[in-house]
Amino acid sequence: MRYPWLRLAVFIIGALVPAYWLYLGGVGDLGPDPGKVLVDNLGQGALVFLLCSLAMTPLQKVSGWPGWIALRRQLGLWSFAYASMHLMAYLFFLLGLDVESLPTEVLERPYITVGAAAWLGLLALAATSTRWAMLKLGKRWKRLHKCIYPILLLALLHMLWVVRADAGRWALYATVGAVLLTARLPSVQRSLVGVGRQGSR
Ligand code: HEM
């Protein structure tokens, strides 16, 4: 395994952050509605890891350092893990474990429908993120994993629905997302190659 210390550092951050939030909730430091704060924090965490995962290819192209790519899959899996914890916290704290009402929520609340679609997309990508799935799916693997971009758009739409009054925070995530989507355009990708290395000469 390449870059084991880097992977370990990402693993520790990914695991410690939600544990710290749980601790804050446990000691009463998450405000009057800790369940809602936990749901929100985990949702934002899922989005941050998704954006970080998408940033790895452009960073590799600019710097030429292969370590970025070594982290891409792990960051994507953390995005899925946070989105799953977000879903579980929602079921536990906001629905009071009334799992039977979930289908109604998904069908009747458009922002939940969109969030669920994003989660299912992340599930499909996580399930096919292994080397075995890559070999088995061949060319279809790349096409499937390009769904990460529509998934990002769904996650941003889901968030916009929730934070309408606080659009500034959303705009920040959306801007980063737009920059990363632009970086995927073939002409931009070509111009990114080696930019960092040229600058350091
Ligand atoms: C079945 C899947 C999902 C459900 C049921 C769900 C549910 C929710 C709910 C109920 C809220 C608002 C909580 C509140 O009242 O403040 C929320 C907010 C949010 N969700 Fe989701 N969500 C899902 C999937 C996702 C996914 C896949 C992502 C990102 C990849 C995501 C990111 C967010 C973000 C960023 C917020 C806003 C947090 C904030 O206000 O700071 N959600 N979600």
Automatic annotation (TrEMBL):
GO terms for biological process: protein repair. GO terms for cellular component: plasma membrane. It is found in: Cell membrane; Membrane. Pfam families: Ferric_reduct. Keywords: Cell membrane, Electron transport, Flavoprotein, FMN, Heme, Iron, Membrane, Metal-binding, Transmembrane, Transmembrane helix, Transport. One of its GO terms (molecular function) is heme binding. InterPro entries: Fe3_Rdtase_TM_dom (IPR013130), MsrQ-like (IPR022837). It is a multi-pass membrane protein. Binds 1 FMN per subunit. Binds 1 heme b (iron(II)-protoporphyrin IX) group per subunit. Its cofactor is FMN; heme b. The chain crosses the membrane at residues 5-23, 43-63, 75-96, 116-135, 147-164, 170-187. Residues 43-155 form the Ferric oxidoreductase domain. Belongs to the MsrQ family. Part of the MsrPQ system that repairs oxidized periplasmic proteins containing methionine sulfoxide residues (Met-O), using respiratory chain electrons. Thus protects these proteins from oxidative-stress damage caused by reactive species of oxygen and chlorine generated by the host defense mechanisms. MsrPQ is essential for the maintenance of envelope integrity under bleach stress, rescuing a wide series of structurally unrelated periplasmic proteins from methionine oxidation. Heterodimer of a catalytic subunit (MsrP) and a heme-binding subunit (MsrQ). PANTHER family: PROTEIN-METHIONINE-SULFOXIDE REDUCTASE HEME-BINDING SUBUNIT MSRQ. This is Protein-methionine-sulfoxide reductase heme-binding subunit MsrQ. The lineage of its organism: Bacteria, Pseudomonadati, Pseudomonadota, Gammaproteobacteria, Pseudomonadales.
